[in-house]
Amino acid sequence: MAGKPKLHYSNGRGKMESIRWLLATAGVEFEEQFIEKKEDLEKLRNDGYLLFQQVPMVEIDGMKMVQTRAIGSYIAAKYNLYGKDLKERAWIDMYVEGTTDLMGMIMYLPFQPADTKEKNLALIIERATTRYFPVYEKALKDHGQDYLVGNKLSWADIHLLEAILMAEECKPDILSAFPLLQAFKGRTSNIPTIKKFLQPGSQRKPPTDEKTVAMVKKIY
Fold it and tell me: Domain named GST N-terminal: which ranges (predicted)?
């Protein structure tokens, strides 16, 4: 039997967090090998483990997978979270790309200079409420189903919940104008594997603080 997937990344959210979410939702136990200093990253590079010299890297099914998007689509397909056909997969991809864009803005906020943070936070809130969340609210309204694609939990739903929770860390009432997304958040948060991942003590990482920023800058 294959061993547990092993995740190589620093001990913070970053680009690995969405992969943790996917594995946790699929009920897959995983190990984490934290990169704590520059030398740890250099060793992975020198050993030839990083195809493009960068992390995240996930050891799974005998592969050393890199590139967040490739890792995510492999895990989603492997655990039946990637739609039933090409069309559904295309919709899932589009939705995931949208939430990736929004989460990228939030992810980089703690790393920005203090004098631009307020302006960038305002931009995140504006984009979330006018560009991204209306799309998902409309999708749920138009088909009247519990999930975004095919009336079945998929990568798109998991990614959207992660994005919602990150956006709420920026502005707690950010969903006030989106009743269907509020209901979606309640439903998906209560899926047993997700509920477990949202509990204290899970492998979910906390919001990025100054200490994490300093650690990341030291490694990369």
Answer: 3-83
Q: What one-character DSSP code corresponds to residue 48?
A: T
Nearest alpha carbon to residue 76 among 25, 33, 32? 25
Which part of the chain has CATH 1.20.1050.10? 86-190
| Cβ 23 vs Cβ 50: under 8 Å | no
- Sorted by sequence, the CB contacts under 8 Å of residue 133 that are 6+ apart come out as 167, 174, 175, 178, 181
* Residue 192 burial class via C-beta count within 10 angstroms: exposed 0-12, middle 13-18, buried 19 and up: exposed
* Residue from 163, 154, 162 nearest 76 by CA: 154
| Lookup: tokens for 116 | 């631009």
pTM of this prediction?
0.96
What CATH code would you report for 86-190?
A: 1.20.1050.10
Looking at residue 204, the DSSP 8-state letter turns out to be P
pLDDT in tens, 113-139: 989 999 999 999 999 999 999 999 999
What is 6-79's CATH superfamily? Glutaredoxin (3.40.30.10)
| pLDDT (tens digit per residue) in 59-106 | 999 999 999 999 999 999 999 999 999 999 999 999 999 999 999 999
Q: Specify whether the CB–CB gap between 4 and 58 falls below 8 A.
A: no
